[in-house]
Amino acid sequence: MSDHLKKIYSLYAYVYDTLFGKIFEHGRCTALKMMDIEPHDTILEVGIGTGLSLPLYPKGISIIGIDLSEEMLLRAKTKKMKYTLNNVHLSTMDASLLAFRNNTFDKVIASHVITVVPEPIHTLNEIKRVCKKEGDIFILNYAGIDNQFISRFEKIISPIRDKLGLGKHFDLDLLLKEASLPVMSKQQVNIFNACQIIKCRNNTSSEA
Ligand SMILES: C[S@@+](CC[C@H](N)C(=O)[O-])C[C@H]1O[C@@H](n2cnc3c(N)ncnc32)[C@H](O)[C@@H]1O
């Protein structure tokens, strides 16, 4: 499945910013505001893709961005150079197997990623592990349009979306409960309020 996603995103990389840049910009900007980043914060962005969020971070903040797709990361690296973001470090990595020590980051964000990865619970558990106790975890996702017919249609086409690497339909609240991640706040964003940002608090500490 990871190989399939890698292949798909090596193609999306060419058109990703054109297709998903402007349309999801409001969500990204709101998420960054919600993160309320302090100068000393260490940030992990999981599935950073082409780095559309990079110019939105306050300058000088230490950010690590990881992604499965080298082609997507290549675009992120171009943005890092363009905006001279010397404190940004980008690595190819699988979100379900993060190469970081326990309790490393103050804040972790996964934007349009949790519904894409094959085993979201593994990814959430990894995010929890590398996030410090009392650190914040932000999940930005397409959540669906509040209309009975559209939502029924979305459930039907969910397997196709999943195959195309564009995320699948599932109950994110249930998943967060399963991962024991308490929700602190939620905000609807983007056109038709179709996406939501969920802020969770990591109330567990992994052994150092
Ligand atoms: C829909 S894009 C979102 C990109 C970016 N976060 C954004 O908001 O524009 C999903 C990203 O997740 C990455 N991805 C998918 N599975 C992954 C995994 N297991 N580990 C790390 N990244 C993954 C893809 O390569 C892709 O860049």
Automatic annotation (TrEMBL):
- For the keyword Methyltransferase, the answer is yes
| UniProt feature coiled coil, ranges | none
Question: Its Enzyme Commission number?
Answer: 2.1.1.17
Q: Which Gene3D superfamilies match?
A: Vaccinia Virus protein VP39
Q: Name one GO molecular function term.
A: phosphatidylethanolamine N-methyltransferase activity
- Source superkingdom: Bacteria
**Span of the signal peptide:** none
Q: Which UniProt keywords apply?
A: Methyltransferase, Transferase
The keyword Methyltransferase belongs to this UniProt entry's keyword annotation:
yes
Xref: InterPro entries? Methyltransf_11, SAM-dependent_MTases_sf, Thiol_S-MT
Q: Which Pfam family is an annotated match for this chain, by its short name? A: Methyltransf_11
Q: Please give the biological process terms from Gene Ontology that the record holds.
A: methylation
Segments forming domain Methyltransferase type: 44-139
What protein is this chain from? Putative phosphatidylethanolamine N-methyltransferase
Lineage of the organism: Bacteria, Pseudomonadati, Planctomycetota, Candidatus Brocadiia, Candidatus Brocadiales
Gene assigned in the entry:
pmtA
